[in-house]
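U., I forgot to send this yesterday:
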Amino acid sequence: MSKPPNIGKPIEILLVEDSPGDARLAREALKDAKVRNNIYHVENGVQAMDFLYQEGKYDDRPRPDLILLDLNLPKKDGRQVLTEIKSDDDLRRIPVVVLTISEDEEDIMHSYNHHVNCYITKPIDLDQFMKVVKSIEDFWLTIVKLPPNGEL
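Result:
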């Protein structure tokens, strides 16, 4: 029987979500993941960029292996965050999954035009939301080969 991927080192996940309820549900869905992970949560786009650039109170945080990004954020919205991530040579290879309520075609096109790895609309139903987060975990943490953390 083969070992689960990444058995020694946990996957670092940055959750960028301003809704406390959605953040709690996402963390809960990921805490029993098949693959060990550490989940870091920030509530707005400014905090997300500080985390990614390891600035201020985030200076000791690891570089994430995966980013779960809401689009509708205070201070700096997720569209701006995505654009900044994918325009930065040091950050662009970090996979970004947009997880948002927006079904707007402009948001979808903007996200893919700025190299989002996946765009998922959040279900309203609690059970469906949990299933969606579990499916993200199944795909991104067990099937996909992520780039080495910190590699250019």
